[in-house]
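Hi everyone, sorry if this is the wrong subforum. Our group has a chain we'd like a structural model of before ordering constructs, and none of us has done structure prediction before. Sequence below.
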Amino acid sequence: MARLRLAALAALGPLLAGCFTVDALLRADGSGTLELTYVPAKHATIDSETARFTAAHVTVRSVESVPGGARVRVEFDDVTKLPTAEGLRMATVVRRRHGGREALKLVIRNPEPKPFQDHGEPWPRIALTLPGRVVAAAPPAEVSGDRVVWKLPIAEYVSRPRTAVSVRWTSG
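Answer:
Right subforum, don't worry. Here is the predicted structure as tokens:
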């Protein structure tokens, strides 16, 4: 079985535990794709990570080792069901429709918040491509048409019990 861990990750584990990037595409019907780059558990394998990210509403397309961690690519049939996969249980996703607009709120729980010295790293990064033009994002984010990107200082994520982002867009 291929191992995902790298020797250097063991030493950097506590520092990198909060580091991840998400790049997701949400379709109008609520389905979509998600790519997550993260630092896996110390003894993670391709098989164990595939199992952690697989659920009735979430299909793993690939898991691979990348410099500094792992990358998993999944497809989902309902964005609000992403937390049904064990590897995504720390997230809560709520999607609402308000007339001609829609909203999505993502809350990520941090099971072990701890003080962290901020060195200005813009991490984690969460990017979403939506099925309409973005009209608002909180906290402030980079917005370009149908795409929103949050770059949150790692100290905020590591030291808080939860991090929330939300976005509103026009529905097609």
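For your construct planning: Confidence is low (pLDDT under 50) at residues 1-17. The chain has one domain: 7-170.
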